[in-house]
Amino acid sequence: MIVTTFFFLWITVFFDVQVESILGYFLIFTFGIFHGSNDLMLIQKTTSLTKQTFFWRTLISYIAVVMLTVLLFSLIPSIALLFFVIASSYHFGEQHWGALKIKAPLKSLFYTFYGLVIFFLLFYLNQKEVTPIIYQITGIAIEKVVYLYTLAVSFAAFIGIYFWWYVKKMIDVNIIKELFFLLVLAIVFRAASLLWAFSIYFVVWHSIPSLIDQIRFLHGTVNKVTLLKYLKNSFLYWFVSMMGLAVLYLIFQNQEGLFLSIMIYFLAAITFPHVIVMTRLNRG
Predict the structure, then answer these.
(1) Residue 109 lies in a domain
(2) Which of 20, 67, 68, 242 is deepest in the core (most CB within 10 A)?
(3) Which residue has the higher pLDDT, 119 or 104?
(4) What's the rounded Cα separation, in Å, for the pair 281 and 220?
């Protein structure tokens, strides 16, 4: 991940923001969307329902969550965006730390605070790009100091829970290595544009590790054959998602700022059900 991250960061030296944006969208719409496109198969592996009953129940539930997300963003966008950030933060933390199989108090908070550190490190170091997008969605102009305070509180809570667990011998992790990873991400977030920085984290640090975990869960091993099976099973959901986003692009292609806001709605709509699925699997 470190090597790939710095390779992508090196790209910023040779290309302008427009090229970074194209590459960023490509990574998000391929690896990023694919890593959440096989949720139905993941759920089916953990249920005893017949295939047909399972399919319809799960499909209806999945669509209901997506529609509820769209409704929330339409009626109360500020609350919906806050919920999206918190849910995504938990999901990022769960993916990063989940392999440790931590059995300790405040685990969910630990995951969430770690994810909030990632988010607000990105927001703070790209405040000039982030604030207009948040304002367009919510009508609220956030001062830079708010990002800094939230980052500081989240980091203090994350470190506090870690050291409590460490003293109680509930966790055995090299915190220096984890802090080094955060330093690497800070360098990336500072040097790259907002979209490119998010793409690097979302794909290299989250989506690809998640893909590997999912393939291993479904097929027992990761190789060319199981990867192709995963992609085949995920293709329909991915294709439908891309068609929906393509329609939005045709509508808002001349309004880049507005399209970024719409893309957040889109990512939120497919993220919430994915977070529920992965949380269920990790607790199973």
Answers:
(1) yes
(2) 20
(3) 119
(4) 15
Residue type at position 31: F
CB 81 within 8 A of CB 264: yes
Using 50, 70 and 90 to split pLDDT, how confident is the model at 128?
A: very high
3-state secondary structure (DSSP) of residue 92: helix
d(CA 31, CA 48): 30
Residue 210 structural domain: 2-8+25-283
For residue 166, the Cα-to-chain-centroid distance in whole angstroms is 27
Summarize pLDDT for 63-80 with one digit per residue, the tens: 777 677 777 777 888 888
Structure tokens that stand for 76 in this block: 């109360």
> Is 90 exceeded by the pLDDT of residue 220?
no
Q: How many CB atoms lie within 10 A of CB 77?
A: 20
Buried-state track 105-123, b at ≥16 Cβ within 10 A, e below 16: eebeebbbbbbbbbbbbbb
In a domain, 16, yes or no: no
Residue 19 falls inside a structural domain: no
- The residues, ordered by sequence, that sit 6+ positions from 87 with a Cβ below 8 Å of its Cβ are 271, 272, 275
3-state secondary structure of 172: coil
pLDDT band at residue 44 under the 50/70/90 scheme:
low
Q: Is residue 278 part of a domain?
A: yes
**Which of 239, 238, 173 has the alpha carbon at shortest distance from 207?**
238
How many Cβ atoms are within 10 Å of 230's Cβ, its own excluded?
A: 22
Identify the sign of the CA torsion 83, 193, 190, 188: positive
How many domains does one find in the chain?
A: 1
Give the whole-angstrom CA distance, residue 273 versus residue 161. Answer: 28
C-alpha 7/C-alpha 132 separation (Å) is 29
